[in-house]
Design goal:
The chain is an alpha/beta fold and 431 residues long. It has twelve helices and 19 strands.
Length: 431
Amino acid sequence: MNQVYNRIESITGNVITVRASGVKYHELAQIRTRFGKSLAEVIKLDGDMVSLQVFAGGQGVSTGDEVRFLGREMQVAFSDDLLGRIFNGSGEPIDKGPELTENRKPIGGPSVNPTRRILANRMLRTNIPMIDMFNTLVVSQKLPIFSISGEPYNQLLARIAMQAEADVIVLGGMGLKYDDFLYFKDALSKGGALSRTVMFIHTAADPTVECMMIPDMALAVAEQFALQDKDVLVLLTDMTNFADAMKEIAITQEQVPSNRGYPGDLYSQLASRYEKAVDFANSGSVTILAVTTMPGDDVTHPVPDNTGYITEGQYYLKGGRIEPFGSLSRLKQNVNGKTRKDHRALMDAMIRLYASYKETLEKKNMGFAMSRWDGKLLKYGEMFEDRLMDLSVNLSLEAALDLGWEILAECFEKDETGIKSDLIEEFWPLK
């Protein structure tokens, strides 16, 4: 039987305190006020003093309101009816559709037992050349997208959602501007991807505690779809907002702060989410791409710094492009040899020549005389950036590889590329 208490000891911002017994950490409670009902979550236990974070905020809550503990943690309803739907951080629909209440699953559970996993060995195609060709995304991989504010990371996630060869897309938005939320909704709808997408959205105007629920909601749903033999791609934006929500609640709980005010368990909190990436031995998979903004473009900031230790590489978004230097997919070698036999050699040659182009560009900007070889590199670099690095480019891996050969043939002689002669003979374009 649910416990009910009719006296609230204190109200501090969005946190209320009641005297209660038999209550568990993270347990949900329902607060009945004169304005309606609101959910709250237990965030601190100190003897019989129980502190709860009110999802809808403390405004309108009085000391005489009823608090009913529900005896369970947060859950999310799961069924195929989730596809095409949009929910908030409490799991409530915000798309004017019906509420789903059946087959509720707990969120935030442990990651999958390693004995049920298989090693990542399949490519997840996105039709973005800077990913597929140069830093291949692998099924069940966990990768952050490091970015600074102002970069088009939400647009990149929307393109990946529309183009990725995944059965289900689960999008978790944290601290989104309302315009960004509408952009995701419109872009996926017009791109025909909304019908295979589930969205959990927390906007900047929503309660802080709901921001912390978004990754767990998204990953719990993704895991259930994966158990139905589906390949699921989870897109999260922005994990720095998630960490900031953790920091805000930790301050409310009067925890001793760690680096830059973040809680001391920041690493564990991030890792528990990223480690949900999995390829089941006899079923589907969960792959995670998560935007992590870097305040002041500082990669040593606690959030990107901890993230780098947890994940299997990173994509750097800079100047509206995925930067080839610094971006890394540590698992790409698991699949590059299985795509096309020229993939690895062409990728290495093009990046090597692009690095030479960057050096030549610096020489040009400093006023050095340009040689004939420098001229070739300058032409090559401009074509590479325009035809392959631009995020609006939508090409299959095979088409991107063919285009790579065409760019090389336009700028260099065969023996200037450093590629093996047998590959040159087979793939060099005929003029």
